[in-house]
Each structure stands twice: as structure tokens, then as C-alpha cells.
Amino acid sequence: MAKISIENSSFNIEKKEHFLSLNGKEISHDLLKNPNRKYHLIVDNLSYQIQVLQKETSSGKLILRINNRVITTNLDNKLTELLKKMGMESGKKKLKDLKAPMPGLVLDILTKEGEQVIEGQELIVLEAMKMENAIKSPQDGVIRSINVQQKDKIDKNHTLLSFE
């Protein structure tokens, strides 16, 4: 479940298979992810073109362009709550190393050394407890080194990759 705040309003959103729950009311939707942080959302036969202009995972701040209107929102979800508990909500610290959040098997490496990545970009796919988990970049940056190979079995906190 996530809570999105826009100006003086807030909305509770939960994704359930093919439905979104908005403040407890299920609504059907169709969401298409396009390149460059762009999305096409259809809800109740209304079409929305959405582009993520800025995303600060640690604070939950999102700046979106929705049908050519720019809005600033605040997203509170499990990740932002965890970062706040860990004292990382300021967002000023840049990670040097990205570590595995769980033990698992490296299924795929979606980046390469020297590549410029953006926050939220999928970097590595881990299999843990028969589930595929996409490990996403916590920040914008350049990949300095990749410390795993496909089919490696890794432990929790194993350094997956390093940023410049």
C-alpha cells in the first residue's frame, strides 16, 4: 500500500492484480510503461500521459507531468518508511556500493560497467525463495564495477556493484 499526497489531498493506493484500490474503492485500469520514465494510464475510460520528471526515493518526492500539467507529489510506501527508519531520508548520501538485500541466485545483469543509470532503473535480477526480484538503482550515477556474474549464488549484503 502507498499513500500519495498532492497539495492538501492524500490518497491511499494499493495494486491488486488487475485492479487498483483507491481509498478502498477498486477501479480497473490499464498501465503501459514506455521508455524514458513515461507511462500511459487509462482509468474509467480516461487517458493520462504521465512522465516522471524527478524521483527522490529516499524522501518520496515525485515530480510528474500528467497530460502536460506538472505536479509535485509525495509518495509514502514501504521503501520510504524503511529509509526513514534507517535515517536515510535526507537523500544527501550517495551510495558507493549496492548490496544484496537477501541471499539468492543472480539471474540477470541488466547494466554494464561505465553505464550511466537513473534512479529506479532495474540493474540486477535475483531469484530468492522461487521469486524474481529486480534490484533497482537507488540513485542516478555511473556504474564503476559489477561484482557478480550471472548464476552466482550470493549471500545477503554481498556487494553487487559499485558506483563512481
Overall mean pLDDT stands at 85
The termini sit apart by: 34 Å
Strand content: over 45%
| Order of strands across the main sheet | 1-2-3-4-5-6-7-8
Helix content: under 10%
Low-confidence stretches: none
* N-to-C SSE string, H for helix and E for strand: EEEEEEEEHEEEEEEEE
Q: What structural class do the secondary elements suggest?
A: mainly beta
Let me know the largest β-sheet: 8 strands, antiparallel, barrel
Return the domain count: 2
Instruction: List how many beta strands DSSP finds.
Output: 16
Plain-language structure description:
It is a single chain. With 164 residues, this protein is mainly beta. The protein folds into two domains: 2-85, no CATH class; 97-163, RNA polymerase II/Efflux pump adaptor protein, barrel-sandwich hybrid domain (OB fold (Dihydrolipoamide Acetyltransferase, E2P)), CATH 2.40.50.100. Helix content is 5%, strand content 58%. The chain has one helix and 16 strands. The chain has one helix at residues 78-85, and strands at residues 2-6, 9-16, 19-22, 25-34, 38-43, 46-56, 61-66, 69-76, 97-99, 104-109, 116-117, 122-128, 131-136, 141-146, 153-154, 159-163. The strands form three sheets. An eight-stranded antiparallel β-barrel has the order 1-2-3-4-5-6-7-8. The protein has a four-stranded antiparallel β-sheet with strand order 9-16-14-11, with no helix packed on it. Strand 5 and strand 6 form a beta hairpin. The longest helix has 8 residues, at 78-85.
